[in-house]
Amino acid sequence: MDGKGKSNQARSKGLSSTLNEDRLSQLPDPLIIQILDHLYTKQAAKTSVLSKRWRHLWLWVSSFDLTSLRFTDFKAFVSVGDRIFDSTRASRIHKLRLRLFNETEDRLYSVKDVSFLTSWLDAAAKRKIQHLDLHLCECDKSHFYMKPLNFYHCETLVCLKLSDVALDDASAHFVSFPCLKKMRLLENVYPSEATFEKLVSSCPVLEEFEVHILGEDAKVFRVRSQSLKRLTLIRDHSYSSNSLVPGVVVDAPLLSCLSINDLASESFLVDNLVPRAKLGITITFGSGYIDEIVKRSRIRSFLLGVSKVGDMTLCAYTFQLLCDYSEFEPLPRFGYMSRLGVDLRVSYFKWLPTFLETCRNMKSLILTWDSHDGEMSPKRRIINEASEVLVREFSNPQETYSPFGGAFNKRNDTQRPS
Fold this sequence. Notes:
Helix content is 24%, strand content 23%.
C-alpha cells in the first residue's frame, strides 16, 4: 500500500473514531448512567478512563455489586468502595451487594481488617438504601461486628440479607427497620438470644423471613412478629454429640406459610398460626438420647400448635416420628386439612390410615416413595377420605387414584404437584 492509501486509511479510522465518540457524547448523562447500572461495579468503574466526562458518571448509578473476587488486589477493591461511599456524595443507592472473600482473582488473603464496612454501611443508610446483601464469606468474623451504626436506624431499607456476619450484642437495643418487608439471615453469629429476637421484632412490617441457623448454635431462637406471613427456618444438624440445642419458638398471628427444616432443635413451638396455613415439615426433635416421655410431650405441643393447618407436607422421617408417637398418644384432629403430602417409606405405609383418620376434610393426598424401598400398592380402604390421591414413585410416572372414579389413570407428568 502506497503512502496515499495509508493516509486515507488512517483518516478513515480517525473519522470512524470521531463519529463513535460523537454518538456517545450525544447520549444524555441519565441514559449513560442507566446503561452503567446494568454492569458489575468493577466494569462500570473502568469506563472512568474513557474521557473526562465519563470519569465520575459510574459513581451515580443506583445499584452497586462489589465482590472482592473480581479484583486482583484487595486494596483496589477497598479503594473502589471508598470512592462509592464517599461521605460527601448525595446520590441515592437503591441496591447494594457486598461480597468479601479471603481471596481475590489470583491469590489468597488473610482478611482481618474490614473496619471500612462501618463507614460504607453508614453511608449507604444516609443515601436511602432499599436493598442490602452482605456476605462475609470465609472471613474471620471475630474481626468485624455489625455494631450500633446509623445503618441500624435505616428508615428506607426494604430487603435485607446478611450471610456469615457477626452481630454485636449492643445492637439489640438500637435496631429499627420500619420499612423492612423481606429479611434473610444465613449462618450468622448472634452473641445472645436477645440479639436475634430484637432484630426480628424491630421490623414492624416484616412479611417474609428466612433464617438458616448453625447447628452448634445452642440458643433458643424466638421469632415474634405481628406482621410476618411467610417463614422459612433451617437448622443444621449439630455434629457435637454432647451439645444440647434447646429449640425454636414461633409466635406470628398472620403467618400463612411455614417451612421447617430443623435437624437439631429439641423442641419447636408454634403459636397463633393462621387457620388453613401451609406447612412443610422436616423436623427431628433432637437426638435419640432425649427421654422419650419428654420427647412425646414436645411433639404433642408442636402438633397442637399446627393443628389448624390446611396444607401439610411431611418428610419420611417426620412421618415415621409421628407414627411412633401415635402408638402412645392420639394424634390431634386436623379439621382444616384439605391437602396432605407425605414422603413415605413403604414399611410405614401401614400407619397412613391412622393419620388420615385425623384429617376428615382432606381432598388431596400426595404420596411419594423411593422405589428402592420396596413396592407399594395403595388400598382403596385407606384413601376413601380424599377425592384425589397422587402416588409418585421416584423416576416413575405418577398414578392418579380416585375413590369415586373406578380404576386409576396414568399421568405422564413427573413433577410433584405443588
